[in-house]
Specification:
Layout lengths: L4 H7 L3 H7 L7 E5 L4 H10 L4 E5 L9 H11 L3 E4 L6 H6 L1 H22 L2 E7 L22 H16 L3 E6 L2 E2 L6 H11 L2 E5 L3 E2 L2 E2 H12 L5 E4 L6 E2 H11 L5 E5 L19 H7 L6 H10 L10
Parallel strand pairs: 1-2, 1-3, 3-4, 4-5, 5-10, 6-9, 7-12
Antiparallel strand pairs: 8-11
Helix pairs in contact: 3-9, 4-6, 6-7
Bound molecules: 1,4-dihydronicotinamide adenine dinucleotide.
């Protein structure tokens, strides 16, 4: 079909036909739920350069409200919904299990039902905590999930709802997120280093710290394809929380003593997997895309002065 101004005019009112004739504008309107969380804000800044982006959080759309969620998504009629909304307080999930399932499992389901109805693509963000940590090699997408805590269980059920209800979905498991927006482990460490001479940090939980900027770039790449399915996406390499803290202090020239402790010495409400390193197998196989090492990403994060220049290259 020849694409002329008249063709565009003719199909202007029907964006599905319009997007069908332009493969590259398959996605025009994007809704981000949980749009004021650390990943949601990052994605908004990146994607609004390319798409018409709506970033909704609790005030605009509580994803646990089934009817409202379906109605609001139906009336916005996005081509893509990225679900970043979650109950991410891992210990809080143990204490408020009902709420955890309501948000992380059924909230995801409500969005998937709406996407199914309007034929929209869904990106659903999930977690390394779906694994039990008994591996000693990085987990790939086909490894058996077996969550140890309510957070992981509720997120896994959310994944299952999405993959059972939809054909056009990307489920993206990530880990140990930090970014320019919201509180994170790096802030906590630097804050504590200002107040104390000695910090104790857990050394027997191994994972992959992941910069939200890098994850947002992966999501942008994936949504430009039709390679739907389950993906792991975390910065390359692995460390313990203790090693992560040591690197933060090394890169910021912060002088503080850090003592490694075991999870048994640092009791938390929720049990965490001892080893939850993700291998980005599908990303590397399907897109030939390798995420950079976590140390490099951490340096970049610590060096980035303002948000304006964060996506220039
Ligand atoms: N933070 C981390 O270390 C990790 C996060 N993830 C996943 O990545 C995704 C993004 O996480 P973050 O941005 O770090 O989380 P965040 O906690 O910074 O943001 C979550 C957002 O969801 C919103 N929200 C909570 N309940 C809601 C509801 N009922 N309706 C609508 N919005 C609601 C919150 O207001 C918040 O703005 C989540 O799916 C999380 O499970 C995965 C692995 C690690």
């Amino acid at each position: 079909m020849e694409i002329t101004a008249n063709t565009i005019k003719k199909y202007m009112k029907n964006k599905y036909l319009l997007t069908a004739i332009f493969e590259e504008v398959r996605i025009v309107r994007v809704l981000i739920t949980g749009g004021k969380g650390q990943l949601g804000i990052e994605l908004k800044y990146l994607l609004e350069n390319y798409y018409e982006v709506y970033a909704w959080d609790l005030e605009e759309l509580d994803i646990t409200q089934r009817e409202k969620t379906i109605n609001e998504i139906r009336s916005l009629d996005p081509d893509l919904v990225i679900n970043c909304a979650a109950y991410t307080d891992v210990d809080g999930c143990e204490e408020n299990a009902d709420l955890a399932y309501k948000i992380n499992a059924y909230g995801a389901r409500n969005i998937a039902v709406a996407c199914q109805e309007i034929g929209s693509i869904m990106v659903h963000i999930s977690t390394d905590f779906v694994f039990d940590g008994n591996n000693d090699n990085p987990y790939i997408e086909s490894d058996q999930a077996n969550p140890l805590n309510i957070y992981g269980k509720s997120k896994l059920i959310g994944e299952e709802f999405v993959s059972n209800l939809l054909d056009k979905y990307f489920i993206i498991r990530t880990a140990w997120l930090y970014g320019a927006h919201g509180d994170n482990f790096i802030h906590t460490m630097l804050r504590l280093a200002n107040k104390k001479d000695l910090l104790t940090v857990v050394d027997d939980q191994i994972g992959s710290p992941t910069y939200t900027k890098d994850l947002a770039l992966v999501i942008k790449k994936l949504i430009a394809t039709k390679l739907y399915g389950l993906y792991h996406a975390s910065n390359n390499g692995q460390c313990s929380w203790y090693e992560f803290a040591k690197k933060i202090f090394e890169y910021t020239n912060t002088n503080v003593k850090v003592k490694p402790v075991t999870s048994k010495e640092f009791i938390r409400t929720a049990t965490r997997p001892a080893y939850s390193v993700l291998k980005n197998y599908s990303l590397e196989e399907n897109l030939n895309y390798k995420m950079r090492d976590w140390q490099e990403a951490l340096k970049d994060y610590l060096n980035s002065k303002n948000e304006g220049d964060r996506y220039e290259n």
